[in-house]
Amino acid sequence: MDSERIKGLIDLLAESDLLELSLTEGDSTIRLFRQAGKVVVTEAQADPSPLPTEQSPTVAIPSVTATEIKASLYGVLHLTPAVGEAPFVVVGDQVEAGQTLAVLEAMKMFHPVKAKTAGQVTAILAHSGAEVEAGQSLFRLG
């Protein structure tokens, strides 16, 4: 399997909610899975092992080290639950999958922005009160 195809599969998994992706072509099998906020690639010939071991011909390569959390819709970003309160998260915080990082206000409704994976907040990419576009990166987790 060529490296461009593997990179495309890694990007597909990183941008989706899937936990694992496996593809077999002829004698080659590639297995991608999420592990602690990273996408891990294992590639094997013929009979793949379920997990890589030291005796296995399988190679594990950490491919994606940062995850970007993007706005699901257009709206006003709020980094705090209410005026004068502490922010949901700050740079350096360790977060769990599903934890609320901020809320987006659209048409007088508040929509939570949640972490898709566990990780550490390495960057907050928009300011509180800013109007953000759907698909705009808001947070980076490492």
From TrEMBL:
One of its GO terms (cellular component) is acetyl-CoA carboxylase complex. Pathway: Lipid metabolism; fatty acid biosynthesis. Keywords: Biotin, Fatty acid biosynthesis, Fatty acid metabolism, Lipid biosynthesis, Lipid metabolism. One of its GO terms (biological process) is fatty acid biosynthetic process. CDD domains: biotinyl_domain. Residues 66-142 form the Lipoyl-binding domain. Transmembrane segments: none annotated. The keyword Chloroplast does not apply. InterPro entries: AcCoA_biotinCC, Biotin_BS, Biotin_Carboxyl_Carrier/Decarb, Biotin_lipoyl, Single_hybrid_motif. GO terms for molecular function: acetyl-CoA carboxylase activity. This protein is a component of the acetyl coenzyme A carboxylase complex; first, biotin carboxylase catalyzes the carboxylation of the carrier protein and then the transcarboxylase transfers the carboxyl group to form malonyl-CoA. This is Biotin carboxyl carrier protein of acetyl-CoA carboxylase. It comes from Pseudomonas arsenicoxydans.
